[in-house]
């Protein structure tokens, strides 16, 4: 093979190798990555076969979070992380200009939406939903603020709201 | 001459390899320095940038100085400065001190490397052979640098990378000192040569562009492996050692093709193809980085040697033209790092937010107990807060795992899914920078094509 041909073969092989590698990687999904976008919290999120009290509490918490996030105009992921620690909540308040009172109102709205969602999903009988709705509507704002000051107690309260009615709930579960 | 040629050749090759290794040896230690000195990605990049910038600026003046004061004396003094500054780097406890010491180290290094090229022709018998020894020693050093740096960082500390260079530099200086004494005794400082030719503009320009692309490949890949995928420095060193191994294969291919222009073009295309592959990694898996690294390794070996030969071919004095190639290569590294750092730093921040949101959604949608979700959210938030905007290590947030086997399996699943989200986010964050590097490699084809004297 003469020198000129070797030069052409070398350059040709380089082009083929480079294109082949990029082509194979693209075909294998190399450019398909897009981070999963957060769902709009105002859109209804279907309850998936709630079975048992814990699963209802789980779905109830998510619905409440969605409702509150919708009210505040943030994603439920952002709100969930904001409620994780007092420092995170402080940063959240500064960033979005949301004070404790506004946050507490949103939490109350979220809890009410969760009751509606549970009712719509057939996970909560209207016999239980009515009194629960009344209880939440009557939670004083300062108590709601106290709830968001301690997310443990917030979730504890969600469970305690459902807890005493546990036996009744079990009877009304689908 | 007062010392035997073989030890002298070995000493000169060692000096060149040691100095040029320093432009990349610190790459794998950067994440460790980044954490240890509590700095930013942009800040730690200057540990690399400062050395390469000073090398780029000082190489040609250093070559002129070496010819004026005597190359052996210049090489010995350069190595002494390099050793002293290496000691200062090793004991630095602040980023500013480390960067300053790196600048001084580069000054000494530039003097030693260019003086070595002036000394080599007399030692090995011809300018052509001297250029081959010089370029090979430099390429070997640059290729081995990251792996050696990674191993030392993992087994000892990042400081050991610099401290170990002190005795090595002094050992290389010993045989050269004998030549320096001879220079002083005879008064002959440098070989008298007729100046031939201006610096080869196109070859040096292409060298700068290709070096920018190679710096991107090495620097970004290391950051991806350590900061993105959380490999240990020694693990990353093993992974990136594929590149120098492939470069050895490339060096065997070179002599088969006499056309330097063809080797340079093929090399630039391979480097770009490898970077393109890294930009489109289908998954966050180490094995998928190997084929792109092989292309980059073979490509860099072909293109760097072809362009260096071209820049030096038929030109004198060799030290001055060697200085121009050093200057072009290191300027390229600096441009590559400075152009790409802001791109991937911004992308990392954006991807981190997206990945954290996706991870939070995974946790919220999981079936674990709401109180456990809250506990996880609190721990993850604390880790994010502690890492101040860096790509987080999320695993420890899931410790201790629940004792209940069912819940434990759920939490382990969540941990793996969240880590997968973060890994994919980190991988994607590097894509635009790798693509920019690939573009730089392709743009180098323009000066390669424009060069009229590429074929030797």
**Helix proportion of chain B:** over 70%
Structural class, from helix and strand content of chain B?
mainly alpha
On the 0 to 100 scale, the average pLDDT of chain A is 76
Strand content of chain B: under 5%
User: In terms of structural class, how would the helical and strand content of chain A be classed?
Assistant: mainly alpha
Question: What Rg of chain B is obtained from the alpha carbons, in whole angstroms?
Answer: 24 Å
Number of helices of chain B: 17
Quaternary state reads heterodimer
Elements of chain B, N to C (H/E): HHHHHHHHHHHHHHHHH
Count of DSSP strands of chain B: 0
What separation lies between the terminal Cα atoms of chain B? Answer: 32 Å
The parts of chain B where pLDDT drops under 50 for at least 5 residues are: none
Briefly say what this structure is.
The complex is a heterodimer of chains A (about 170) and B (about 450). Chain A is mainly alpha-helical.
Question: What distinguishing features does this structure have?
Answer:
heterodimer; A: 9 helices; B: mainly alpha; 17 helices
């Amino acid at each position: 093979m003469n020198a000129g041909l070797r030069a052409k073969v070398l350059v040709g092989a380089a082009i083929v190798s480079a294109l082949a590698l990029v082509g194979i990687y693209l075909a294998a999904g190399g450019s398909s990555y897009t981070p999963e976008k957060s769902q709009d919290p105002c859109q209804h999120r279907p309850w998936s076969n709630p079975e048992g009290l814990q699963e209802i509490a789980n779905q109830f918490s998510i619905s409440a979070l969605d409702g509150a996030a919708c009210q505040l105009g943030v994603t439920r992921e952002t709100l969930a992380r904001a409620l994780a620690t007092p420092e995170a909540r402080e940063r959240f308040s500064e960033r979005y200009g949301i004070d404790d009172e506004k946050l507490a109102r949103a939490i109350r709205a979220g809890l009410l939406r969760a009751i509606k969602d549970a009712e719509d999903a057939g996970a909560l009988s209207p016999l239980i939903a009515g009194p629960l709705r009344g209880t939440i509507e009557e939670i004083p704002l300062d108590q709601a603020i106290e709830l968001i000051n301690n997310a443990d107690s917030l979730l504890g309260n969600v469970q305690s709201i459902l807890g005493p009615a546990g036996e009744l709930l079990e009877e009304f579960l689908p | 001459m007062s010392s035997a040629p073989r030890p002298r050749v070995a000493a000169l090759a060692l000096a060149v390899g040691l100095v040029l290794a320093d432009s990349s040896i610190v790459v794998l230690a950067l994440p460790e320095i980044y954490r240890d000195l509590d700095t930013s990605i942009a800040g730690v990049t200057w540990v690399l940038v400062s050395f390469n910038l000073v090398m780029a600026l000082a190489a040609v003046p250093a070559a002129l100085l070496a010819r004026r004061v005597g190359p052996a004396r210049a090489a010995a003094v350069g190595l002494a400065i390099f050793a002293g500054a290496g000691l200062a780097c090793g004991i630095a406890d602040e980023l500013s001190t480390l960067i300053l010491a790196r600048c001084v180290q580069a000054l000494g290094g530039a003097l030693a490397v260019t003086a070595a090229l002036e000394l080599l022709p007399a030692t090995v018998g011809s300018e052509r052979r001297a250029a081959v020894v010089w370029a090979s020693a430099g390429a070997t050093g640059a290729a081995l640098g990251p792996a050696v740096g990674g191993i030392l960082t993992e087994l000892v500390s990042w400081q050991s990378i610099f401290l170990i260079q002190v005795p090595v530099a002094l050992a290389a200086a010993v045989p050269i000192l004998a030549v320096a004494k001879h220079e002083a005794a005879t008064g002959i400082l440098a070989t008298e040569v007729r100046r031939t030719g201006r610096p080869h503009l196109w070859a040096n320009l292409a060298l700068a562009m290709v070096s920018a692309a190679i710096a991107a490949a090495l620097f970004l890949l290391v950051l991806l492996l350590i900061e993105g995928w959380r490999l240990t420095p020694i693990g990353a060193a093993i992974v990136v050692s594929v590149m120098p191994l492939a470069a050895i294969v490339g060096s065997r291919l070179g002599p088969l093709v006499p056309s330097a222009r063809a080797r340079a073009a093929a090399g630039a295309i391979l480097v770009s193809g490898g970077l393109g592959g890294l930009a489109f990694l289908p998954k966050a898996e180490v094995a998928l980085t190997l084929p792109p690294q092989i292309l980059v390794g073979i490509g860099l070996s072909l293109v760097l040697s072809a362009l260096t030969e071209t820049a030096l071919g038929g030109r004198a004095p060799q030290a001055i033209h060697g200085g121009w190639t050093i200057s072009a290569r290191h300027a390229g590294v600096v441009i590559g790092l400075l152009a790409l750092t802001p791109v991937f730093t911004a992308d990392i921040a954006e991807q981190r937010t997206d990945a954290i949101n996706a991870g939070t959604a995974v946790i919220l949608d999981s079936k674990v107990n709401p109180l456990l979700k809250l506990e996880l959210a609190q721990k993850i938030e604390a880790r994010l807060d502690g890492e101040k905007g860096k790509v987080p290590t999320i695993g420890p947030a899931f410790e201790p795992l629940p004792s209940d086997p069912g819940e434990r399996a759920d939490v382990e699943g969540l941990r793996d899914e969240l880590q997968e989200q973060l890994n994919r986010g980190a991988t994607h964050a590097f894509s635009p920078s790798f693509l920019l590097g690939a573009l730089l490699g392709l743009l180098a084809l323009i000066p390669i094509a424009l060069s009229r004297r590429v074929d030797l």
